[in-house]
């Protein structure tokens, strides 16, 4: 029996730092559905830390690659709203992104390189009255809705030859050490680092971490591989080294903040004066 093919509806995702209190997200959805009542709208997150463009870039990187080809992703983490930063439509081989040109696309570009970028200069695809403070409603949402109706991205405005990228810290590799940075913390307090398979071999992991007087000496295969309340290192779902605490928060346990540096050393000559976990 031949499987019946179902025509997919236009799919638009929303990622913002708006929260769910003030109706901002609802206004964006109202604009989209007014232009294209057939659109499917999926919320990725509206709890990105306020004005944290790097965190927003990480949320996009973690979620957008898992959506169907042709999805239109709208992202509004926009501390420069009302300034001279451009509103842009970014095209990759798999999706379109409608967002401010402030670096939000950086981590997506590392996964699926940007092919074309267009500045939104044809204001007829925006709402008639564009506020200085709510481009999510007045610019990004209507442009995405028109794209979902088949508008070619090049018709939103002029092509750009470059786009803003975040200046992200890179991990440093030495003979017996790797230094990295905490680049993101999730709602559980798990700390994602920029140490990935290019810096360490996760299938033959021989590194230990000493941080604020506490030491983790091996890579765990699951959060529950250590006792409740104990810290661990694990390869995260996006392939990078993550610090976690079984049933707790690595942010609190290690007294960390996003942007803090950390250092891995070869797992030898452990100092018994340090607290050890993960053995």
What does this entry look like structurally?
The protein has 279 residues and is α+β, with helices and mostly antiparallel strands. It has two domains: 150 residues, 3-Layer(aba) Sandwich (Rossmann fold), CATH 3.40.50; 106 residues, Bacterial fluorinating enzyme like (Elongation Factor Tu (Ef-tu), domain 3), CATH 2.40.30. It is 17% helix and 27% strand. The chain has five helices and 16 strands. Strands 8, 9, 10, 11, 12, 13, 14, 15 and 16 form a nine-stranded mixed sheet that branches. It has a seven-stranded mixed sheet with strand order 2-1-3-5-4-6-7, sandwiched between helices. The N and C termini lie far apart (54 Å).
CATH superfamily of the largest domain: S-adenosyl-l-methionine hydroxide adenosyltransferase, N-terminal
Overall outline: elongated
Return the structural class: alpha+beta
Number of strand elements: 16
H and E order: EHEHEEEHEHEEEEEEEEHEE
Q: Which stretches of 5+ consecutive residues score pLDDT under 50?
A: 1-6, 269-279
CATH topology of the largest domain: Rossmann fold
The CATH top-level class label of the largest domain: Alpha Beta
Determine the strand fraction and express it as a percent band.
25-35%
- What's the domain count? 2
Instruction: State the share of residues found in helices, binned by percent.
Output: 10-25%
């Amino acid at each position: 029996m031949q499987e019946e093919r179902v025509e997919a509806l236009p799919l638009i995702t929303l990622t913002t730092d708006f929260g769910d209190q003030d109706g901002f997200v609802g206004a964006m959805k109202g604009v989209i559905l007014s232009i294209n009542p057939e659109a499917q709208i999926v919320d990725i997150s509206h709890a990105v830390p306020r004005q944290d463009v790097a965190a927003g870039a990480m949320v996009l990187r973690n979620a957008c690659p898992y959506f169907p080809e042709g999805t239109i992703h709208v992202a509004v983490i926009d501390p420069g709203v009302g300034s001279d930063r451009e509103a842009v439509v970014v095209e990759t081989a798999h999706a379109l992104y409608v967002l401010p040109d402030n670096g939000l696309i950086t981590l997506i570009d590392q996964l699926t390189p940007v092919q074309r970028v267009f500045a939104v200069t044809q204001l007829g695809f925006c709402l008639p009255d564009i506020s200085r403070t709510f481009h999510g409603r007045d610019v990004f949402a209507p442009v995405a809705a028109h794209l979902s109706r088949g508008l070619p991205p090049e018709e939103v405005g002029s092509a750009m030859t470059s786009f803003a990228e975040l200046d992200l810290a890179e991990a440093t590799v030495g003979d017996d050490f790797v230094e990295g940075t905490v680049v993101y913390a999730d709602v559980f307090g798990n700390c994602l680092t920029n140490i990935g398979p290019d810096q360490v071999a996760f299938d033959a992991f021989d590194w230990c971490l000493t941080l604020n007087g506490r030491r983790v000496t091996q890579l765990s295969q699951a959060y529950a591989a250590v006792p409740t309340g104990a810290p661990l290192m694990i390869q995260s779902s996006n392939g990078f080294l993550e610090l976690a605490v079984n049933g707790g928060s690595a942010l609190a346990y290690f007294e960390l903040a996003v942007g803090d540096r950390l250092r891995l050393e070869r797992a030898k000559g452990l100092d018994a004066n340090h607290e050890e976990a993960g053995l």
